[in-house]
Amino acid sequence: MSDSEHEYSENENDAIYDDEETALEMAALESSAMIERPAKEFINHKAALSALLEEISQKSLKWIHRCDVVSTQPIVVEKADNDLDRELKFYQQGLEAAILGKQEVLNAGVPFERPSDYFAEMVKSDSHMARIRQKLLDQQKGIQNAEEAKKQRELRKYGKKIQHEKLKEREDQKKVALDKIATIKKRLRSGDMGDADDFDIDVDSEGDDKKSKFNRGAKAKGGRPQPNKKRQNKNEKFGYGGKKRGIKNNTSDSAADMSSFSVKRNKSTNFSAPSKKSRVQRPGKAKRQRTH
Amino acid sequence: MATLYKTAQSEYMDVDELIDEKERQSNIKHRVLMVASRGSTYRHRHLLNDLEMLLPHSKKEAKIEAKKDMDLLNEMAEIQGCNNVFYFETRKHTDLYLWISRAPSGPSVKFQVQNLHTMDELKMTGNCLKGSRPILSFDANFETEPHLQLLKEILTQTFGVPKGARKSKPFFDHVFTFSIVDGRIWFRNYQIAEKDAETGGDLGRNDKPTLIEIGPRFVLNTIRIFEGSFGGPTLYENPDFVSPNVIRANLRKSRAVKHVDRINSAKEKEIRTAENPLPKDPLNDVFD
């Protein structure tokens, strides 16, 4: 038992320390964790800074040469990450300075605004401003499009329901109407044609009218309805009823009939086969691959 | 001088005072040299161009490599007749540092530029005259500490367009705001719109103007203030500043933790198995 234990521990040592690199890494990690660096002293010579400020200061200059405005309220932002809050504070600071500055400028007897007819180069060129405007427009358009698409999607969802209901309604109406007709017919057949009949209509004639709508024109013999004009022509051409035999065979008349011959279509400039070169040929594979 | 004397006499002013004033005015010829280091990216370049456009008293120079010899910048400023230098230093093509220095005697400040957005990439609708003078708006926090007061003075002298500067226009139509949030200096640039936002007509007497942001935006994180120009003894060191290199290293280290955990668990397992060996099975050699 103790022997095996001894062996194990030896193995362990081998496993860990044979890899020199790993060992070094471990050592480095341990040392860095253990060594506490002394707290660094940061330099801040307040007296020297103040003296230097006095030396370079141009406070004696009139305001119009310095143009600096200090805000009345120090900026306090709870979280620097809060973009909206931070930018608002900056804006307020700038606005205050703009108002105070304007007063100072006017007090010094210097024009503040440029005259309306004073045109000069701007910091951002016209093309730059146009780009910005385009960007804004695109943004607005994008928002509008998105909204419209959303609305359409909603409508489609809703519209399908409406369509379904409408179809159902129409079917119901039809059913009700048919039922009514059937009951009236039944009543007529039974010979009961009293005053109680709500519908003062000749039901049979109505039915006839309906039929005649489908086959206009005179009835053919045998009570068979005559087909429409198109069908009639087709029947004439391809045959309908009667003997089919021999109807498609050539006859001497049909063979002599040249009415369908087109000279133009059968005319060729050269009776010999067209030369291979004149034909537009598909280019070779190499050529095709080169171009694509 | 004769004319000066005349005007002074005509306005019953003290002649000496007037001459003093004139001299002082002639002394403030702030000119800013703008230089970028090599290896700056397009964003850094665009920021430099934006600032050059907004500050008519600036002079742009070609990129330089001044990693070791920062004195070169002082010389350049002297040659160009500039008394302020903006040096945009890019490290590793990612981190932008801004040196603002009063050449040649100092002081100078080193900032890290963060949250950088140039005028081009921001879709801000504001616009202003090229070369018009800005109103500089400072947060009241600037008055609290000596180093902030010094920074305010330096920013006023560099970002303020001197009256009558070359290429400048004598009107005011934008505000630069400098605010301190989170221990950093946040820069914004707004147009002052004196028109009614809705009707486009003129404002009434008591109506407030509106501000429209123009851009660019950036945040300056102070690293150090030096007494000299691009060097000299340090007067202030920001205790909250963490180098972006350290941040990146920590990030990488936190990713490496996974690997270390695996090694640790393997080690623990070996120890565990060594401590608790399986008991010998008495039936193991019954059939031997």
UniProtKB/TrEMBL annotation, chain A:
<dbReference type="GO" id="GO:0034399">
    <property type="term" value="C:nuclear periphery"/>
</dbReference>
<dbReference type="GO" id="GO:0005730">
    <property type="term" value="C:nucleolus"/>
</dbReference>
<feature type="compositionally biased region" description="Basic and acidic residues">
    <location>
        <begin position="147"/>
        <end position="174"/>
    </location>
</feature>
<feature type="compositionally biased region" description="Basic residues">
    <location>
        <begin position="213"/>
        <end position="232"/>
    </location>
</feature>
<keyword id="KW-0539">Nucleus</keyword>
<dbReference type="InterPro" id="IPR008610">
    <property type="entry name" value="Ebp2"/>
</dbReference>
<dbReference type="GO" id="GO:0006364">
    <property type="term" value="P:rRNA processing"/>
</dbReference>
<feature type="compositionally biased region" description="Polar residues">
    <location>
        <begin position="248"/>
        <end position="275"/>
    </location>
</feature>
<feature type="compositionally biased region" description="Acidic residues">
    <location>
        <begin position="194"/>
        <end position="207"/>
    </location>
</feature>
<feature type="region of interest" description="Disordered">
    <location>
        <begin position="143"/>
        <end position="174"/>
    </location>
</feature>
<feature type="compositionally biased region" description="Basic residues">
    <location>
        <begin position="276"/>
        <end position="292"/>
    </location>
</feature>
<comment type="similarity">
    <text>Belongs to the EBP2 family.</text>
</comment>
<dbReference type="Pfam" id="PF05890">
    <property type="entry name" value="Ebp2"/>
</dbReference>
<keyword id="KW-0175">Coiled coil</keyword>
<dbReference type="GO" id="GO:0030687">
    <property type="term" value="C:preribosome, large subunit precursor"/>
</dbReference>
<feature type="region of interest" description="Disordered">
    <location>
        <begin position="192"/>
        <end position="292"/>
    </location>
</feature>
<dbReference type="GO" id="GO:0042273">
    <property type="term" value="P:ribosomal large subunit biogenesis"/>
</dbReference>
<keyword id="KW-0690">Ribosome biogenesis</keyword>
<protein>
    <submittedName>
        <fullName>rRNA processing protein</fullName>
    </submittedName>
</protein>
TrEMBL record, chain B:
<keyword id="KW-0539">Nucleus</keyword>
<feature type="region of interest" description="Disordered">
    <location>
        <begin position="268"/>
        <end position="288"/>
    </location>
</feature>
<comment type="function">
    <text>Required for biogenesis of the 60S ribosomal subunit.</text>
</comment>
<dbReference type="GO" id="GO:0006364">
    <property type="term" value="P:rRNA processing"/>
</dbReference>
<dbReference type="GO" id="GO:0000027">
    <property type="term" value="P:ribosomal large subunit assembly"/>
</dbReference>
<dbReference type="InterPro" id="IPR007109">
    <property type="entry name" value="Brix"/>
</dbReference>
<dbReference type="GO" id="GO:0005730">
    <property type="term" value="C:nucleolus"/>
</dbReference>
<comment type="similarity">
    <text>Belongs to the BRX1 family.</text>
</comment>
<feature type="domain" description="Brix">
    <location>
        <begin position="30"/>
        <end position="231"/>
    </location>
</feature>
<protein>
    <submittedName>
        <fullName>Ribosome biogenesis protein brx1</fullName>
    </submittedName>
</protein>
<dbReference type="GO" id="GO:0019843">
    <property type="term" value="F:rRNA binding"/>
</dbReference>
<dbReference type="Pfam" id="PF04427">
    <property type="entry name" value="Brix"/>
</dbReference>
<keyword id="KW-0690">Ribosome biogenesis</keyword>
<dbReference type="InterPro" id="IPR026532">
    <property type="entry name" value="BRX1"/>
</dbReference>
